[in-house]
Amino acid sequence: MFDEIDIHILEILQEKARIPNAEVARQVGMAPSAVLERIRKLEERGIIEGYEVRLNPACFHQGLSAFVQIETDGTDAQTATSLSAIPSVQEVHQVVGPDGFLVKLRTADHTTLAKILQQIRPLAGVKSMRTQVVLETVKETRRVDLTEHNGNSRH
Question: Using one digit for the tens of pLDDT, what is the confidence trace for 38-86?
């Protein structure tokens, strides 16, 4: 499904998505047109889902992170859709166990957090909630560990 060159290209793009194609080609030792074709195929296959800018949440008065564990009554599809529609909600994960969902959200402060929780509480399917406020984020990434795929890393 992947070869070593694909893995190397993916490692480079995960490090810096805006790197010029010519630089990727130089690093993998291929012609820019061949690298561009590989990247296009990785995109078509859904391996590369997209490219995005990571913003500093504190610069937008969203420095407070919280995780909300939500127990549901079984109407999970409707609950997931409703949770996903809340702008401060960044992630919605359906989980195994007594909780139906684990939700990550960002907001300005505790007052705003309380308002968002008041939006969540009456949603269809929500039975109970437990909230954990993040004191400090030690690591946060969307990178995929490619060393498990090919057994080694170039870093």
Answer: 999 999 999 999 998 888 998 999 999 999 999 998 767 889 999 999 9
By C-alpha distance, which of 100, 31, 101 is closest to 92?
A: 101
Describe the crossing of helices 32-44 and 21-28 by its angle, rounded to 10 degrees: 100
Q: How many angstroms separate the CA atoms of 122 and 147, rounded? A: 43
> Mind giving me the DSSP string for 48-76?
S----PPP-GGGGT--EEEEEEEEE-S-H
Q: Is the pTM of this model over 0.90?
A: no
C-alpha 112/C-alpha 49 separation (Å) is 32
Query: What does the block give as tokens for 69?
Result: 């564990």
